[in-house]
Amino acid sequence: MNYIKPISKHTGFFVSRQPFTLESGGVLPEVTVAYRTWGRLNRDRSNAILVCHALTGSADADEWWPGMFGKGCAFDPDHDFVICSNVLGSCYGTTGPLSVNPQSGRHYGPDFPAITIRDMVHLQRLLLDELGIERLRLVVGASLGGMQVLEWGCLYPEKVHALMPMGISGRHSAWCIAQSEAQRSAIMADREWNDGWYDPAHQPKGGLGAARMMAMCTYRSFENFQERFGRKRKDSLLFQAESYLHYQGEKLVRRFDANTYIALTRAMDMHDLGRGRESYEAALDAIRVPVAILSITSDILYPPEEQEELAKLIPDSSIAYLREPYGHDAFLILTDEVSAMVRQFKERIASGNHSAA
Fold first, then answer.
1. Which of 85, 113, 269, 287 is 20 to 30 Å apart from 40, CA to CA?
2. Mean pLDDT value of segment 109-117
3. What is the dihedral of CA 145, 171, 289, 88, to 10 degrees?
4. pLDDT in tens, 147-164
5. Which is catalytic among the residues 76, 80, 119, 299?
């Protein structure tokens, strides 16, 4: 078992039997990548777009980002060949804590080695090599996905034509690290945690649910909660805001894994484009492909000043804003607006006009 909920019947699996060395020095004896594609590669293989998903996402991008797919949308299967792979460390088909360690015969659980965003991108590169794709027209993603987008610009600039990171920074802030640790602590405080060696069928539901509830408070904004819930009650015992958080926690528990949540949030905390490089500023200055940055003005997790810093330090970059009160999750909610922004950027890079606002 290496995923919790059913995944699309259209999912493909790439298996590499070669040892996969991680940035930490750890080694995975073999790796599996779950991925989806939409559309077809054109004759010169120049229409490939890579979509990178967020923390609890999967390769099924048409399910979690449905408004982005279709004729005239950001990702048009009539013209684009779109790829989305489940990230390393996740629980939807790609090697992660729920996967069986071929050396021990049991699932990795808490023994799954520490991974980074760079490891995720290196594994995506292996997948693209398998698919025969030498260059990507565009890499796009938000949140954890945006971290991968930026690392593509640092690790494989010769492989990408353009980048579109959304709602993200170039290095995880102390604020984000603190939020992640609080959520991990909630999981580990669950009596079912058992140092991570819980039965995957009976995981620490209370802790994982609480972690999701905490996260949801940062994915939305004060204005959004106030407008949507105010002091309205679900019943005599619960405020609507409470009911909403419990619903979100219970929903995640049904489809995600606690060890996976911990592995991926730790990878996010390690996100720093300057780590091991000359400097943070030099790393951003070295990104020489067109970059369109999407900023969400009501985002309290990755505030606009972090995207404005990216725009200042990346030479060929532009920035656009979603000025709505939905918070960090706006990229999932306002899909008509986001789709239009992606489509416009695609048109700009096709015309060679990269810097238009």
1. 287
2. 98
3. -40
4. 999 999 999 999 999 999
5. 299
From residue 196, give the alpha-carbon distance in Å to each of 112, 116, 148.
Answer: 10, 20, 27
CB 232 within 8 A of CB 242: no
d(CA 195, CA 200): 13
CB atoms within 10 A of CB 256: 23
Residues 341/333, Cβ–Cβ less than 8 Å? no
pLDDT of residue 330: 97
Q: How far apart are CA 132 and CA 276, in angstroms?
A: 30
CB 269 within 8 A of CB 176: yes
Decide if 64 contacts 57 (C-beta within 8 A): yes
Count of positions (residues) in the chain: 357
- Give the pair of three-digit tokens for residue 131: 């698919």
**pTM greater than 0.90:** yes
- The question of whether 336 is a catalytic residue gets the answer no
CA dist 115 and 105 (Å) reads: 21
Kindly name the residue from 53, 107, 271, 328 that is annotated as catalytic.
328
Instruction: Measure the CA–CA gap between 164 and 341, rounded to whole angstroms.
Output: 10
Tokens of 25: 């020095």
**What is the rounded distance in angstroms from the CA atom of residue 121 to the CA atom of residue 127?**
10
User: Is residue 298 annotated as a catalytic residue, yes or no?
Assistant: no
Cβ atoms of 244 and 229 within 8 Å: the answer is yes
Of the candidates 90, 143, 295, 339, the residue annotated as catalytic is: 143
